[in-house]
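in:
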């Protein structure tokens, strides 16, 4: 499929906002390589087919004078044989770029018309009404109907779903607060259970709740993929994965002052990295280039760890990494009930450098704080299994991260490849260059990003390290090494802060003490990380 086209009409003239523009990727999508079901347009959840509708008719805007408002849309047109399950809502401050699912009952009985409606919300000027379908016994409502009159919608306007094809949903990001007598809030809606093995499916719709009232969350459900065991019917094969990476991969731009660059695991292992074992600390062993002699499975019990070469010259060289050898490692996994694919792109840095504090206009180096050997970082592409379209990218940042919609990415060279910016020394990844301060206006930890001639194009060097649903993917031994990629050297962070305070004078020393409350737990020691497979993101949803 190509880029999306949105169709909508409005009954009145309003100020133009970003949502009045249809978002398009810089480059049209290619024809994806052949496969069993990926990008075929329809997914069968088990007698209920769903299609991702990306064209809309505008129903109502909350105000039109402020880009913090929202617009409600109805999916249109809906393919023959399919029925509306819910409407769409988006903030006005970004170009229109969204979707909702429509359903087709192919086995009989998976869909049923509601028996009635109840009014959920109406605008203060009585120009918009949001209705909750009342489902028949054994069915669940999964979305709202919207009208511009007080008359209830017809009973065939929207359809309810058989209960065994639904699961519990929860509110997502706040889209809009009405600030009227209703004190209502509009949220995105997502499955309560998410992750690589979760069957729950997002419909792409929204939910309205009143302040202090959580009962509305019980009124709408998400879908469930009862065909989840047949993942090859929805997910990309190896050729399609390659095409997706070529189409959407990031280019990592490193800060001009970055000393500690990434490298491949093979380069890391073949340049003197050693495996240590409790009780045999004086007799470490070199690591095989594929990690074949690393302990497999088990748990991170602290009995094994990796460390840099003993020779100081070699040690310093390995710390700096090797950009020429750098390789990205992909974990390809189903998400949202296999209606989307997450391509987690992992990059390894041999060393994480020290942190810097910003106190007012003064930068203060923090000595050892932030340093550790071995550093795994990642970004995740979320791609629709209906059409292969990139919708969101997750940028991991220290112990958290952020989802960024495709509308906000920095695309490069009129392609669908985009820029990613690892921070100086710490390698947290951001969607734009600049300074992100962890802290407050007085004191915080610097995360500096900038574009330079040092960059890494993922599309040029990568491999699929894991895709559990594909039999042809063999995981290298280092993927199943569950212990630390660096030694643990514990120190009292309060002592380190005090040392930094003693190195400065005057009014600067006092606010530095507040860093104790700002520094992430991971910075409280020089502690090598575990590998990607031990992260919560491996099986769970991105945080």
């Amino acid at each position: 499929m190509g880029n999306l086209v949105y169709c909508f009409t409005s009954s009145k003239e309003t100020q133009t906002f970003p949502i009045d523009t249809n978002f398009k990727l810089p480059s049209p999508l290619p024809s994806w390589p052949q496969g069993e079901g990926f990008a075929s347009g329809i997914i069968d959840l088990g007698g209920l087919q769903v299609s991702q509708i990306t064209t809309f008719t505008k129903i109502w805007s909350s105000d039109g004078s402020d880009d913090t408002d929202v617009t409600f849309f109805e999916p249109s047109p809906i393919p023959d044989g399919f029925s509306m399950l819910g409407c769409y809502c988006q903030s006005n401050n970004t170009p229109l770029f969204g979707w909702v699912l429509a359903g087709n009952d192919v086995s009989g009985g998976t869909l049923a018309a509601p028996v009635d409606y109840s009014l959920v919300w109406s605008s203060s000027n009585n120009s918009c009404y949001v209705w909750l379908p009342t489902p028949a016994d054994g069915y669940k409502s999964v979305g709202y109907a919207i009208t511009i009159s007080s008359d209830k919608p017809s009973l065939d306007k929207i359809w309810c779903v058989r209960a065994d094809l639904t699961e519990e949903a929860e509110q997502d990001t706040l889209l809009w607060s009405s600030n009227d007598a209703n004190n209502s809030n509009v949220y995105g809606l997502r499955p309560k259970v998410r992750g690589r093995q979760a069957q729950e499916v997002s419909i792409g719709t929204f939910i309205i709740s009143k302040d202090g009232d959580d009962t509305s969350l019980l009124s709408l459900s998400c879908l469930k993929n009862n065909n989840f065991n047949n993942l090859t019917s929805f997910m990309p094969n190896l050729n399609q994965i390659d095409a997706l990476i070529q189409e959407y991969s990031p280019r990592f731009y490193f800060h001009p002052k970055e000393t500690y660059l990434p490298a491949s695991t093979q380069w890391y292992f073949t340049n003197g990295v050693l495996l240590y074992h409790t009780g045999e600390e004086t007799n470490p062993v070199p690591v095989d280039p594929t990690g074949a002699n690393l302990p497999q499975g088990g748990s991170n019990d602290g009995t094994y760890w990796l460390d840099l070469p003993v020779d100081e010259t070699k040690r310093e060289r390995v710390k700096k990494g090797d950009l020429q050898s750098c390789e990205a490692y992909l974990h390809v996994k189903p998400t949202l009930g296999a209606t989307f694919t997450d391509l987690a792109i992992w990059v390894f840095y041999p060393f994480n450098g020290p942190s810097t504090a910003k106190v007012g206009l003064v930068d203060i180096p923090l000595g050892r704080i932030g340093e550790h050997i071995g550093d795994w970082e990642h970004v995740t592409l979320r791609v629709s299994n209906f059409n292969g379209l990139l919708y969101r990218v997750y940028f991991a940042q220290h112990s958290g991260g952020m989802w960024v919609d495709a509308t906000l990415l920095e695309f490069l060279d009129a392609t669908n490849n985009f820029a990613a910016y690892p921070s100086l020394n710490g390698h947290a990844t951001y969607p734009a260059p600049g300074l992100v301060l962890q802290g407050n206006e007085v004191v915080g930890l610097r995360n500096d990003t900038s574009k330079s001639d040092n960059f890494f194009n993922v599309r040029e060097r990568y491999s699929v390290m894991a895709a559990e649903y594909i039999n042809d993917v063999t995981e290298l031994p280092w993927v199943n090494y569950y212990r630390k990629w660096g030694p643990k050297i514990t120190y009292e962070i309060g002592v380190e802060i005090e040392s930094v305070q003693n190195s400065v004078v005057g009014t600067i020393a006092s606010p530095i003490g507040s860093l104790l409350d700002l520094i992430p737990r991971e910075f409280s020691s020089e502690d090598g990380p575990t590998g990607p497979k031990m992260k919560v993101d491996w099986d769970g949803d991105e945080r």
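note: Residues 148 and 527 are 59 Å apart (CA to CA).
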